[in-house]
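In this supplementary section we document a worked example of the pipeline. Step one takes a protein sequence of length 458 as its only input; no multiple sequence alignment statistics are reported here. Step two produces a three-dimensional model, which step three serialises into structure tokens for compact storage. The input and output of this example are shown verbatim.
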Amino acid sequence: MLLKNANIIANGNNLKKVNILVENKKIKEIFEGNIPYGIEDKEIIDCSNYIVFPGFIDAHVHFDDPGYTDREDFFTGTQSAAKGGVTTIVDMPCTSVPEVISKENLHYKLDIVSKKAIVDFAFWGGVTPIQIQTGEYKKTIKELKEEGVVGLKLYTISGMKTYPKVNTEEMAAVFDYIRDLGLVAGIHAEDFELVDYFSKREQNLNHIYPLAWTKGRNYEAEAVAILRSIALAKEFKNKVHIVHLSTKLGLMIIEMAKNEGINITTETCPHYLVFNENDLERIGPILKTAPPVRRREDSEYLWDGLKKGSVDFVTTDHAGGVYPQEKNKQSIWDNYAGIPGVQTRFNVLFTYGYSTGRLTLEDLRKVLSEKPAERFGLKSKGKIEIGNDADFVIVNPYGEFKFNASKDLLCKNKYSPFDGFTFKGEIEKTIVRGQIVYEKDKGITVNGGFGKFVKSEY
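The serialised model returned by step three reads:
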């Protein structure tokens, strides 16, 4: 394959026109000027009018396979990813049966999902309190590391009976152990005691409206859990990653920790950048997530964090519920907390980040591709460089379309808080390892099983 006249991002909003030669699924050569003799027989894609991004990475998705496939599975989830320009997803360990908490469970899952995947994929690993209490965790975590997981997911609060929260002592034991393994601890940061108290209080008052959810998932709970994680990371000197950051207060604390030299990164999600509590009140259960969307000033501070780099990248926490059954209950407490987002992330950031001047094209390249690849050791991904996997997203920057969730989404449950939004920037083609997997006019162009398991190499 040859990508001819490819406009790749140099710095800021500046583009550089190059030709990209692909051989054996890798980027073999990047050159300017005329095409040498003998290359004409390649599959040539003229990118003159498009921007060519490195393939996007979504490092936080729940594709629920196996076990909860009425919500999502790897075939539908990775199709949606491909349409959204995502060439590599990283699936969480907690929303499949069995959970990815051992080498055996990982291989069981891998055997099932590898036959379905459209794009490449990696795994987060997991651990449960019982494993920590029995001492089994040292064996299972080491084996998961050897199998290539990108990190270890820990919850400070959990609604999953099969994947409970860890307390401070248990988290400390894990932090201490994974330091020498080099694993990142990914933390769902909401303080259990605060959320438990305020949620019960709201329910006892029979508050069932959408904003009762935000009061129950107390604003300060995120900051408290982040502070606890930072205290332990400071003591044990391990790597920490705060997932789906939602608050200004939380980011201010993370910025303080970064300035102190603590090895901490964080991600936010599109819904925290665009929506706030007023939208939750208006939209209702479709916008219910955990943590919930917050205030306008939180959104603005998160945008600023993306620009200055204190928010390292953007993921989606893609977690679709069964629609409409799990999203139409009268009480906000009875609705599933989660939305599908892997397909719309780029369009949200291009429309509300780049097109408004909040972010440059270079910023988009970093938060969608480069930084997640660097943090999680996906060494062949994330950059358009010789020797890397030939993963590309070809974007028409002048394209515009009105998003219709029921018609446009390829994931299993077709709902979105972005339904009806007009998006700028259209993905023309998604290419994984030199193979077109999605085209705007043709849809998905490969069969399930094309996507490959990618191991972390840090």
